[in-house]
Amino acid sequence: xxxxxxxxxxxxxxxxxxxxxxxxxxxxxxxxxxxxxxxxxxxxxxxxxxxxxxxxxxxxxxxxxxxxxxxxxxxxxxxxxxxxxxxxxxxxxxxxxxxxxxxxxxxxxxxxxxxxxxxxxxxxxxxxxxxxxxxxxxxxxxxxxxxxxxxxxxxxxxxxxxxxxxxxxxxxxxxxxxxxxxxxxxxxxxxxxxxxxxxxxxxxxxxxxxxxxxxxxxxxxxxxxxxxxxxxxxxxxxxxxxxxxxxxxxxxxxxxxxxxxxxxxxxxxxxxxxxxxxxxxxxxxxxxxxxxxxxxxxxxxxxxxxxxxxxxxxxxxxxxxxxxxxxxxxxxxxxxxxxxxxxxxxxxxxxxxxxxxxxxxxxxxxxxxxxxxxxxxxxxxxxxxxxx
Length: 388
Known about the structure:
Blueprint: H1 7-17, H2 21-34, H3 39-51, H4 55-68, H5 73-86, H6 90-103, H7 108-120, H8 124-137, H9 142-156, H10 158-171, H11 173-183, H12 200-213, H13 217-230, H14 235-247, H15 251-264, H16 269-280, H17 286-299, H18 304-316, H19 320-333, H20 338-350, H21 354-371, H22 374-385
Helix pairs in contact: 1-2, 1-3, 2-3, 3-4, 3-5, 4-5, 5-6, 5-22, 6-7, 7-8, 8-9, 9-10, 9-20, 11-16, 12-13, 12-14, 13-14, 14-15, 14-16, 15-16, 16-17, 17-18, 18-19, 18-20, 19-20, 20-21
């Protein structure tokens, strides 16, 4: 049974979802003036205050919502984030994330954030346990892997941390998104015109790329086979074929297709991407991977992920100064790049700059949580569940 919301709360929700923050805040205050014991109004106010970086106000509103309903998961989320972003309140932060993990035990982010709060409060073993719990719930949670890599780096050095960094990177969906951006595909498949006004070869390339993105590798292979039967030297088709092989864990076939594509088009970004990723999966080919990613970063300098891939290859070679510059280029292009933020944190730790490393990890947490739209998911579930 869903919760009955007042017209003022409904108006605040609508304004908030449209990022009209002043109007949303005004509607919240109006709702509180009419019914000051309505936890939804306080939850929304806390979220809006956090969005405006008013941390003390966010803490006060979220605390009030929790006092009215101790099972209010979105209020715990806002309260924990406000403590984290305000800084210096790690004891309170640990308690809040622990409470959220109790209220929503299957919420992966609660365990990730709890681990980060433990780490900030210097409870290293407890932080590792929390991240491992997050991975039990979702083995593909990249942020938990990144945190475990940072923990390994602190304890045992870069050689121990690198494999976990590679695992986390492989789970990052933005890496695959880079390939399709280099291919020139729009983000939305519904916006793709496969035939009208396009030459047959271009339409086929778009079709093969679209099928590969939807993981219909057999369909993509059929289209590519037709293209390569007609022209075995079609570098673009060979590059897509290399990616299809890569996604099917056929590294040698992917390498062969990428190298053949580059023999016809030496600066083709899609082929450089696949070849570099293949090389990076073999420790003995780390130097070759770095050289390929240097070429990729030059061929596609305005994509932040090309610089991230270069930085990670340099990190593996322990060229920390060069890696730091490459990560910095990625962050300048995309300040919300979580992967680059964790990479910069790792470099700072190798330099002994612990405060800077902690700051980068906090920014990574900020952007990662914001990207998932977690507040609205918890809020909608709370309203639908009738918990008030």
